[in-house]
Specification:
Blueprint (H helix, E strand, L loop, with lengths): L1 E3 L3 H16 L11 E2 L11 H7 L5 E2 L3 H4 L2 H11 L10 E3 L2 H10 L14 H14 L3 E6 L3 H18 L4 E4 L4 H10 L9 H24 L3 H4 L4 H12 L9 E6 L2 E7 H9 L1 H4 L9 H13 L44
Parallel strand pairs: 2-3, 5-6
Antiparallel strand pairs: 1-4, 5-7, 7-8
Length: 346
């Protein structure tokens, strides 16, 4: 079971996203029913405009919430259910804390299965990724906003694949609509996030899992100790920072061998490492794999300099960390207040 937190405008946007996604669902794949329970700031917030808009929604929704809901329930939702602070963006939240805890107890490593689930709605989006995982292939997931970097990275990756006689699989997971258009038009690589709804679902799920992981560490009294050492939390931080609205990086790459994540870093140094293949290829032997040799060379290139890293939190969150360490270099990050407008574009 899941719930969504959003202002009315966000709910309408969410309905559009869900409707688009529902139109693409194949037979045999389940899809959740959505029940909206409006929780307003005060009694005056529930206006005629809200009521009129609600009648246009395809969701099930609770009519006249001030009369139907006990104050204790409203307080529980505001203080407990959304204690991580979800702001005004719609986001998926688990209502079963015990099941959530059990799932995290079973998931002890940062693996590609966290990004490519093996069941549910998301499975349809990432089915080829799961096939590559089962075949134990080298998988490059990449993203970013610079088409020049993307073309160079894909070209060099295929060149290295030819030299090593390996079959690399490449897939674009970035949010950039224009870049997705180039990839489709030029058949540059596989692009599972085929439209805005798929992009929304994938990245909303990752952000939800990021918050869920924080909640789990807090619930098990490991948050302070593990916040900067937990590889799962650090993995989510990296990906969310790479695809944040204010990110300045030209690209990013996550390399895995099957489900095992080998390295996840900014694109410029990953491209340089691939360009240097002739330098480090001699390090590949019976005890060191291609992936480990690439990772070692990349770390050598990055030990003195890192690209800027941005991690976004909405100002409306109830819990914004006072301090946050960079997922790249572990230094304390600077905190800024940023106003952002994307003019309705994804």
């Amino acid at each position: 079971m899941a719930t969504f937190s959003a202002e009315l405008g966000g709910i309408i946007q969410l309905e559009n996203e869900i409707s688009d996604a529902a139109n693409n669902i194949r037979s045999g794949v389940g899809f959740p029913a959505v029940i909206w329970i409006p929780i307003t700031q005060d009694d005056a917030s529930w206006s005629t405009e809200y009521e009129q808009q609600c009648h246009k929604l395809s969701f099930f929704w609770l009519n006249d919430p001030q009369k139907m809901m006990r104050p204790q329930f409203t307080r529980f939702v505001k203080e407990e259910l959304f204690q991580m602070g979800l702001g005004e963006e719609p986001i998926i939240v688990s209502l079963d804390s015990e099941k959530e805890k059990l799932l995290w107890q079973q998931q002890t490593a940062w693996t590609l299965h966290l990004l490519a689930p093996q069941s549910g709605y998301y499975y349809r989006i990432v089915k080829p990724i799961n096939d590559w995982i089962r075949e134990e292939k080298y998988i490059f997931l990449y993203g970013g906003n610079n088409i020049k970097w993307i073309r160079e990275f894909l070209s060099k990756s295929r060149e290295v694949a030819s030299k090593t006689q390996m079959n690399f699989e490449l897939a674009y997971f970035g949010k950039n609509k224009m870049i997705r258009g180039f990839i489709y038009k030029e058949s540059l690589s596989y692009c599972p996030l085929y439209d805005s709804s798929a992009v929304w679902w994938f990245w909303a799920r990752l952000r939800s899992m990021f918050l869920s992981r924080i909640q789990y560490l807090e619930m098990t009294n490991h948050l302070v100790k593990e916040n900067n050492n937990d590889e799962i939390l650090q993995g989510f931080k990296k990906l969310l920072s790479y695809e944040s609205k204010n990110a300045t990086t030209e690209g990013w790459v996550l390399l895995s061998k099957g489900s095992e994540v080998v390295v996840c870093r900014h694109g410029s140094k990953m491209l340089q490492a691939m360009n240097d293949y002739e330098i480090w290829k001699e390090n590949i032997d019976a005890t060191k794999s291609f992936g480990q040799a690439l990772k070692d060379h990349h770390e050598m290139l990055s030990k003195d300099k890192h690209s800027c890293c941005t991690l976004e939190y909405l100002i409306t969150l109830s819990k914004i960390p006072k301090n946050k360490r960079c997922p790249e270099c572990s230094r304390c990050m600077q905190k800024f207040l940023t106003f952002t407008c994307c003019h309705g574009d994804d």
